[in-house]
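Case study 2.
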Amino acid sequence: MVSEPKPALPHPLPGAVGLSHLSAYDWEAADGVCGGSPHLHLVCTEAYVVTGGRGAVQTLSPDGYRDIPLAAGSVAWFTPGTVHRMVQGGDLRITVLMQNSGLPEAGDAVFTFPPEVLADPERYAAAAALPPGTGPETAAAARRRRDLAVEGYLALRESLVAGDDGPYREFQRAAARLVRDKVPTWRALWQAGALATAERTGAQLDALAVGEPAYLGEATAHEAAPTRLGGFGMCGRRDEYALPGTTLPYQAE
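Prediction:
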């Protein structure tokens, strides 16, 4: 006899990671490349697990400009402060694993908009925002946002390739200024998510060490399905999960 599943409860995915699926944008940008909106994260490492198609991820970091090929089965990841741009090569599909689930949804991502936009928080917020839904109006706004991010990104890349990392470093500083007021919220999400998960492992190890694994009596299984298909993310069309305590319901930036 197969028992009925228990009611869904707030419970983090392994390591309290965030999870989504992306299909890279096929919109052509000013440089003739099709793909997403370049941006960075301030405190989250992000990983791409490629499930189909081909493409690349372009990155800017202190070690320069890289163009990393992506194909089915490949994995690429980038640490906080790395500017990344997903490039469509042909039906590119990716599963995204995000450190510190909930923080990107709470604002841990800054687009590579031109300096004059980054310097004005209200102007930045207006340029980053999208109308709700998945219709043509939202698609047009997402494409305008992507184009503005590519404009700033191409200038950063040109300087970095020429050996001048000043504009890239200043972009990192501008990004940090933009998110500074969000840090208390991020800290609370981290404490309730990734930190709590690590501390739970410590308590379990303590219990095993003394031979009292009572926590195993709480063993169970969970399941989830995407709660929105085809949303407009930074890099492409995004299938999202609303898992309480793990991946927050996606909010427009």
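Confidence is low (pLDDT under 50) at residues 1-9, 245-253.
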